[in-house]
Give the backbone structure.
Amino acid sequence: MYKTNLPRHWGEQTKAVHAGEFPDPVTNASSPNLVMSTTFVVDADTTFSVEGFEESNACVYTRWGNPTIHQLEAKLSALEEAETAVAFASGMGAASALLFHLLKAGDHAVVSDVAYAALSEITNEMIPALGVAITKVNTSDPEAVRAALRPNTKLVYIETPCNPLLRLTDIALTADIAHSVGARLAVDSTFATPAATKPLQLGADFVIHSLTKYLGGHGDALGGAVLGSRADLALLRKQTAIRLGGTLSPFNAWLILRGLATFPIRMRVHEDNALKVAAWLETCPEVKRVIYPGLPSHPQYELAKRQMRNTSGMITFQTNTDRETPQETARRLAQKLQVIHYAVSLGHHRSLIFYLDSKAVLQTSFKLSTPEQSASWDAFAGQGIFRLSVGLEDADDLIADLEQALSK
Ligand SMILES: Cc1ncc(COP(=O)(O)O)c(C=O)c1O
């Protein structure tokens, strides 16, 4: 809606700074205004129902659209090379809006057997309760995806790298498989970010982001977005964003816009730091196994090189359990780490670490149903993993912090 006709030659960093923004027409303010108004003065012939509402209409009411949120949606679209974006109050707001929008009773969807916990949980129970059949598969295995398709499959939903395993899925191949039966492909690209991968350019129909993570980047604002074609998203905006009402707060939109200005620069540092920390962890006697898409030891390193221009800042590692259980290690890390925060979430400027016990998360979130799915989980996570979101601190300080906390 705002500055969408960008010069095509603009680089990522120029887009991150300028796309979507415009100087305020009244004050000439150079930075985007934060417009907190929930309502806007309109013409007397303005419609009261959202029925005839178009994305390009003037602002009426903030749940329908707001200048600060529009600037964020335009910047995200430029970075993801999408026609348009719809912002939501959180990543789960975006993901669940897409599922509720696309799937009706009698439809079938194929969903990654390992995905963000809340997404796994709603597709285990809530969505099937509406009469939508869901098949969970390891989407990194294209034959498993193909075998799960049915004539009524409307959606294939993947995360790459997936949370928490960092297992990858080949987007272009999965798009071809989904499209062979007329299904759409949705990719949660929160871990990869547009710095690594632009799923729409690889054939995906929808991209989902938790803006709470790398895109906002500072751990101070929840947000989410669905990106795709104007034709697809016009209805989604009306039916799910506007009517169901999971609207992003303009204040959060403003914070995320501000975070996005440095997004490409931040991603380069996240990747550099993660490479250094992951390589050091591989030499650490307390560590049994490290998974990072930028390391040759990642089981899908070739796919990572092909699909990811930036391998992001997420690492998982397993510890040696001969002298201490991972739970004991987790307690020690929570107590002893001085730079890295022991906390959930990821993609912040601050480094974060959290332990995920396999038995616990398999019971609550990931109800794997086949021996192949269990074997793939074991291959990536074993008994449990420490998920480390490498931030923007100096890599040497992160390594020193881990070293002092891991050594008994
Ligand atoms: C891959 C992924 N998708 C979606 C979400 C949900 O995002 P939010 O917490 O903003 O709702 C998360 C949260 O961690 C995530 O990691």
